[in-house]
Design a protein that fits this description.
This protein is an alpha/beta fold. It folds into two domains: about 1-270, Queuine tRNA-ribosyltransferase-like (TIM Barrel, Alpha-Beta Barrel); about 285-340, no CATH class. The protein is about 40% helix and about 20% strand. The protein contains 15 helices and 16 strands. The chain has helices at about 45-50, 60-65, 65-70, 75-80, 90-95, 125-135, 150-175, 200-210, 230-240, 255-265, 275-280, 310-315, 320-325, 330-355, 360-370, and strands at about 1-10, 10-20, 20-25, 25-30, 55, 85-90, 100-105, 110, 120, 140, 190-195, 215-220, 250, 270, 285, 290. Helix 6 crosses helix 7, helix 8 packs across helix 9 (about 230-240) and helix 11 packs antiparallel against helix 14. Pathway: tRNA modification; tRNA-queuosine biosynthesis.
Length: about 375
């Protein structure tokens, strides 16, 4: 159940009550594709850096180690030692990114494993079954993420099929949640709005899926090649047609600036690989913009990455030491940068929630964006 606590303009401050605890929104979900955050970050670290939700991937866990194995081991929470909410994405985006290996039909998608080339079929029912085996808190509906750009005809046909798939997902999830051997009988289902940059297709789709009374609604198929301005335009046009009393999730987005802009347009769930991917390459986020820790100017710099940051990295290690680790290709360097970045994102979401509660979101957003440009 989602409680909308307050709004500041369109910015929402809410709580999603789940079987694995309450999610305070707006929230950034830390991406652990294969049940681990890349960069040697353990779930015990996540507790320390303000992580509320961990996101894992249906397709990747189905391929390895296998969702049936995870079920035998008690589900994803037990498998990875994480007691807070987990969202699993449906595999739909992997189908999009594996375009050279797949064939889309009405029944579902035929494709080959990126690991061993083995033939795999995934449709709405299979995606729900895999996610039920993983026993995540929130399951995402199986959809097609259309390419950008796509013709209007392709987009309309794709969105219509995604709607039919969503109906099948909902039916299958109801069936699975009623089975005696299902680990999480309270698994939630989020539907996904598609339509590329065609706002009329987006709006019509948003209206159709809103009638289905799902646990939450995502906007998919953005941040796949269109400009930031186009993405913001689509959010401006589409979000008002999604239920305000349900969570709204912008999938795969984004930079800190993207998040600040999307919160302003009524979005309250986010995920992105940027903080961990950039961290593994020595790029770290601060309130004064991004820093490249490989830079020679940090060689004798005994300050932490950010003197105002309370993350485990900034509390204990200097820029000079982190630069040395990265230059020496020592894994600890990567790990410390990823921990800092994830903390930065999680902490920014906490600041956002406070600003909305206090009715000063516009002022906060403006100051934060100006800081990034210093």
């Amino acid at each position: 159940m989602y409680n909308l606590l307050t709004q500041d303009g369109k910015a929402k401050r809410g709580e999603l009550h789940t079987v694995h605890g309450v999610i305070q929104t707006p929230v950034f979900m830390n991406v652990g594709t294969i049940a681990a955050i890349k960069g040697a970050v353990a779930t015990t670290d996540l507790q320390e850096i303000k992580t509320q939700v961990q996101l894992s991937n249906t397709y990747h866990l189905h391929v390895r180690p296998g969702d049936k194995i995870v079920k035998k081991l008690g589900g994803l929470h037990k498998f990875m030692n994480w007691d807070k909410p987990i969202l699993t994405d449906s595999g739909g985006f992997q189908v999009f990114s594996l375009s050279g290996l797949r064939k889309i039909k009405e029944e579902g998608v035929y494709f080959r494993s990126h690991i061993d080339g083995k033939k795999i079929f995934m449709g709405p029912e299979e995606s729900m079954q895999i996610q039920s085996n993983l026993a995540s808190t929130i399951a995402m509906a199986f959809d097609e993420c259309p390419p950008h750009p796509a013709t209007r005809e392709y987009m309309q046909a794709s969105v219509d099929r995604t709607t039919r798939w969503l109906e099948r997902c909902k039916k299958e999830m109801d069936r699975l949640n009623a089975l005696p051997d299902t680990i999480n009988k309270n698994q939630m289902l989020f539907g996904i709005n598609q339509g590329g940059t065609y706002e009329d297709i987006r709006i019509e789709h948003a209206k159709r899926i809103s009638e289905m009374d799902l646990d939450g609604y995502a906007l998919g198929g953005l941040a796949v090649g269109e400009s930031h301005e186009e993405m913001y335009r689509i959010l401006d046009e589409t979000v008002p047609y999604l239920p305000v009393d349900k969570p709204t999730y912008l999938m795969g987005v984004g930079t800190p600036a993207n998040i600040l802009e999307a919160v302003d347009r009524g979005v309250d769930f986010f995920d992105c690989v940027y903080p961990s991917r950039n961290g593994r390459h020595g790029h770290v986020y601060t309130d004064h913009g991004k820093m490249n820790m490989f830079n020679a100017k940090y060689e004798l710099d005994s300050r932490p990455i950010d003197e105002n940051c309370q993350c485990p990295t900034c509390r204990s290690y200097s820029r000079a030491y982190i630069r040395h680790l990265l230059k020496a290709k020592e894994m600890l360097g990567m790990r410390l940068c990823v921990l800092h970045n994830l903390y930065f994102y999680n902490n920014m979401m906490e600041e956002i929630r406070n600003a909305i509660e206090e009715g000063r979101y516009q002022e906060y957003k403006k100051a934060k964006l100006e800081g990034f440009q210093l």
